[in-house]
Amino acid sequence: MKKSVLLILMMLFSSFARASTPAVVITAPENQGTFTAGSSITMTATASETDGAISSVTFYRGSTLLGKSSKSPYSCTWDQVPVGTYALTAVATDTDKVSTTSSTVTVTVTPAPPVVDIVSPANNTTLTAGSNISLAVTASEFNGSVSTVQFYNGPTLLGESSRSPYGYTWVNVPAGDHTLTAVATDTNKISTTSSPVTITVTSSPVLTITCPDSDSTFTAGSNITITALASQNNGTIREVYFYDGTYYLGSTTESPYTYTWTNVPAGDYSLTVEATDSDGGNLISTPVNITVNPAANLATTPSLGPHKKEKTKS
């Protein structure tokens, strides 16, 4: 009798021992975590068994199996996750085929913002004032589409494009340093701003005769002062030369650039100036045409001399 009772107790104890269950906890991702669409979510779990060993841990999204791991650390990766809210669990199974399901971890996956990059012009590009600049970008959106791309110079909207390839031509660009960005907006009205691209636009080289005016007229024998405006965006003006047609008149190295042509004879003249810069470059102005008329002849009246009183007969 005693042996029978002892045997029953041993069987009950063995049954209780076999009835122990695994413990399993999801350690990543955190509950109420937020991700963007297209992300990869790695699930990890700790699992243990007091009277045995863990044979596997399986990971679920709702009732959908995401992956299985049979070796600690237990993990699986869910790739390219779409938009939605998901309930994640892990199920640990021991060598006695006893299973335990973890507490639920909820994650939310929000729409991914667009991706946008300026591909032209390149950063730190240098251009000349008055140029036309073609802006080009690449823009895309995971699991969606881009509706518009807007182009900015600093805070100023330059224009927009709603069709790929996304581009805009900025015409007659003024001198200065400009910071360009592109803003892509998708069909969910989510926007992304590109990394900035900085360009430098330099002033155009200037060489022009400011005096005399074209088609001016003078009188032969006049002294004509020729004045030139000269500037160079990438260097300094070294010398300015003054010409009548191909005939060299003179030069100066100091601003204001002037030359006085003295005692100019009558005729028609085409004045130009040529400037050389510190880099050895040169620039020739647009001609200024002037006319020097002959000096007017002074009208003369014959002189009768002193008045003589006629003698009278006596």
CATH architecture of the largest domain: Sandwich
CATH topology of the largest domain: Immunoglobulin-like
**What portion of residues is helical?**
under 10%
Radius of gyration: 46 Å
The major β-sheet equals: 6 strands, mixed
- Helix and strand sequence: HEEEEEEEEEEEEEEEEEEEEEEEEEEE
Characterize the overall form: rod-shaped
Report the sheet-strand fraction.
over 45%
How many structural units, i.e. domains? 3
What structural class do the secondary elements suggest? mainly beta
Termini separation comes to 209 Å
Arithmetic mean pLDDT: 87
What's the total number of strands?
27
Poorly predicted runs are 299-314
In the CATH scheme, the class of the largest domain would be Mainly Beta
CATH fourth-tier homologous superfamily of the largest domain: Immunoglobulins
Structure annotation, total helices = 1
SSE diagram, text form:
Elements: H1 2-18, E1 23-28, E2 33-36, E3 41-48, E4 54-61, E5 64-69, E6 74-78, E7 84-94, E8 99-101, E9 105-110, E10 115-120, E11 125-128, E12 133-140, E13 146-153, E14 156-161, E15 166-170, E16 176-186, E17 191-193, E18 197-202, E19 206-211, E20 216-219, E21 222-231, E22 237-244, E23 247-252, E24 257-264, E25 267-277, E26 282-284, E27 288-293
Parallel strand pairs: 2-9, 11-18, 20-27
Antiparallel strand pairs: 1-3, 3-6, 4-5, 4-7, 7-8, 7-9, 10-12, 12-15, 13-14, 13-16, 16-17, 16-18, 19-21, 21-24, 22-23, 22-25, 25-26, 25-27
What does this structure look like?
The protein has 314 residues and is mostly beta strands. 5% of the residues lie in helices and 56% in strands. The strands form six sheets. Strands 2, 4, 5, 7, 8 and 9 form a six-stranded mixed sheet that branches. A hairpin with a 4-residue loop joins strand 16 and strand 17. The protein is rod-shaped. The C terminus is likely disordered.
